[in-house]
Amino acid sequence: MADWRDAVTNMVYEGRIKVPYLWSVGETGSRFLEALRDRQEIWGTRCPQCRKVFVYPVKHCGECFVPIGEWVRVGHSGTLESFTIARYAHSMQPVAPPLAYGLIRLDGADGSLLHLIGDADLGKLKVGMRMKAVFAPERKGAITDIRYFTPAG
Amino acid sequence: MDKIAIVGVGQTKYERHKIDTFEEMVFEAATKALADAGGEIGDIDNVVTVSNDFWDGRTISSMAVQAAAGSWGKDISTVEGDGTFGALYGLMRILSGSFDTTLVVSHIKGSEGVMNLITNAMFDPIYQRGLGIDATSAAALQARVYMQATGYTEEDFAAVSVKNHGNAKNNPYAQLPKSITVADVMASRKIADPLKLYDCSPISDGAAAVILANQKGIKRFKKAPVWIRGVAHCADSYNLGYRDLARSRALKKAAAKAYQMAGITDPLRELDVAELYDAYSYMELMWMEGLGLAPEGKAAEMVRSGATAMGGKLPVNPSGGVLSSHPVLVAGMARLIEATLQVRGEAGGRQVKGARTALAQGINGPCGQAHCVFIVGS
Description:
Oligomer: heterodimer
Shape of chain A: extended
Number of helices of chain B: 14
Radius of gyration of chain A: 21 Å
CATH class of the domain at 4-113 and 203-220 in chain B: Alpha Beta
Number of strands of chain B: 11
Helix content of chain A: under 10%
Number of helices of chain A: 1
Largest sheet of chain A: 5 strands, antiparallel
Structural class of chain A: mainly beta
Radius of gyration of chain B: 19 Å
Strand content of chain A: 25-35%
Number of strands of chain A: 8
Strand order of the largest sheet of chain B: 3-2-4-7-1-8-11-10-9
Order of helices and strands of chain B: EHEHHEHEHHHHEEEEHHEHHHHEE
Shape of chain B: globular
Largest interface: A-B, 40 and 39 residues
CATH architecture of the domain at 4-113 and 203-220 in chain B: 3-Layer(aba) Sandwich
Strand order of the largest sheet of chain A: 6-5-4-7-8
Order of helices and strands of chain A: HEEEEEEEE
Strand content of chain B: 15-25%
Distance between the termini of chain A: 70 Å
Structural class of chain B: alpha/beta
């Protein structure tokens, strides 16, 4: 059977979906982000039932399915539970590759926080090493008000 | 549960940069499934489509393929998630008592969008998305947690890739049949440590379809039914930081339910073949452990021993798995189709001799947040 492409050229149509959003962060997230911005403090919420401290904070425990009202300030430092170094470049990345990510369990928190790793010898990263938050000099109420985590001393 | 069977399956070849449109791919898969079943579109009571608006680049992506799915004048609804979840929903629609047959169709054109940008958008916009995380960098974080928990090496992961790309040589639908060695995987380009190019599944295009029927519905078709003996679905935390990334609780629960339903007490002995969602090499090991096919920390040894190779005790991914073709959303349905072909004895060069009971698994969400497990049997 003849290939239709012998008769016509397949057309390719280029497009882009660009839609702005305004996401309401809500009470819990706004308190968390405000503390990052104004006081350089990291706060979590503690489930009244399982006593787990969630950072970023949540308003309801996914495990116990109960509301959470208690706030707990956690440390600026913690333990590196995992890391990766992304070697590729895409437009959603905030900095140029190689780009290091970590899962950091902050002192006083259960579970870990996903964030960038910076100011580090990437070849020397090790699971279990101590990390500390470095705040951005100009903060605007975003997760990137913590600029990155860096190996602690 | 009333007995539900798979009576027809169809899939396109999986390729990158497929020239076919969404509609052409869906029509191909749907008509192949009908031909396979020995039925016609009039035999279908309702249709389920599986698609994702971000991947398709249009909102309500499901509506655009309605004609190609044969749904004009029929009840149609949609699952936005892996094809195994679509098949589970299609099965439930029959169990609801409203229908005797369901056609479930899934499609993707991974090559027409940008995977990293699209999967970045699955993460929380307030806390995670701005960091630039995507499916691959998240998987790399999970791979390292898993190495830490099990002591597995990058070579252990590489062995999975070698096996699956080799198996793909027997699957005419697979995108990347390859003869490679562990050394080739280890030398392949670094993507996101510890993952290298050959630890990662490719960008793929394709479509797949299954036809489900109850005991009344199967009479409309000529094909011998393959029965769904067990099926279950379970999800865990969306946020990676709140989940044990090395041990999938959701998969353990889904597997336990599916096995119980199928009356399986010793899956390693009772299953003849398994098709798993190995989007990244390490996942096959992790899912084997979650499914109870290997004790925790022992899956790599099983792969090394050849027990999961063709001719082994339990061949895993004779099709080449997701590492050899990764049509997102379609890939879990492809696992279910492969399981069906195996118990029919119609899997051609990738047939596991005498296979009577097969397992298929699909995942959804970052790093396998949710799992769907099917057990099918002749």
